Amino acid sequence: MNSPQVHAPHERTIIAVALSLVGGFLDAYSYLLKGGVFANAQTGNVVLMFLAMGGGAFRDMLRYLIPVLTFAAGILVAESFKHRAFGTKDPAVFRLRVVLVIEAFLCALIGLLGPRVPHFAVNCLISFVAAMQVSAFDRLKGNQMATTMITGNLKNAMINAGFFLRTKEAKYLDSFFNYCVVILSFGLGVLLGFLCIGAFSDLSILAAIPLLCVPLIALGRGREKKSAPADAREP
Questions:
Q1: What pLDDT is stored for residue 87 in this prediction?
Q2: InterPro entries, alphabetically (predicted)?
């Protein structure tokens, strides 16, 4: 009999759900309050940048280029953490916690500064946050996954659905449902953002902080469960 597959603590469903809620929330926030843009993904900015180039609007090109560069910087920062030991017993979990703390700090900064900060600057910060999150938390139970956008998740969900229809193997059906959970969580995050924005306006982004605490706590519990079998073997 095959032993059950063990996944890293950050690949747990509860973490993917919480971060997908954050991803949807941030997209709703940037769209409804910060100029009608989706700051999580950069495809739109690249399209608009080259449209501006075609129209000779070179100043607008810079407006769309900077969020792309900010997103790229967020990826670089998150990736650089993956190669640091930090002198802790569990550097992998510590690195992920650092990312979550930075995210929470930036969300608090955005909320507290509120309308005093230009939309452009806020969207750049959101792009940075989204980039760190999507780079650091990129798997769910061994499968590639994104918590700040759904296109790739939708593609992978349907690929696994196709595999299941051909092979009838349960693992593909499980993966299909995992992706569906992430997509639904993202949508619920958008709805949560809509409701919070209606009540609290710029301060609504502070609601993302409790959601970020969920993976912070879950990472610690995942580490404890992982070490439990070793403790049980001791006399």
A1: 61
A2: DUF1275
Task: List the single range of 63-77, 176-190, 211-225 with lowest mean pLDDT.
Answer: 211-225
What does pTM read for this prediction? 0.89
Residue-by-residue DSSP string for 88-110: -SSHHHHHHHHHHHHHHHHHHHH
Q: Which residues pair with 144 in a beta bridge?
A: 139
Distance CA 192, CA 40 (A): 16
> How far are the Cα atoms of 15, 16, 127 from residue 20, in angstroms, in the given order?
8, 6, 15
The half-sphere exposure of 197 on its side-chain side, counting CA atoms within 13 A, is 17
Domains of the chain: 10-217 (1.20.1250)
How high is the pLDDT of residue 170? 96
* pLDDT mean over 31-45: 89
d(CA 194, CA 164): 36
> What is the DSSP secondary structure assignment for residue 3, as one 8-state letter?
P
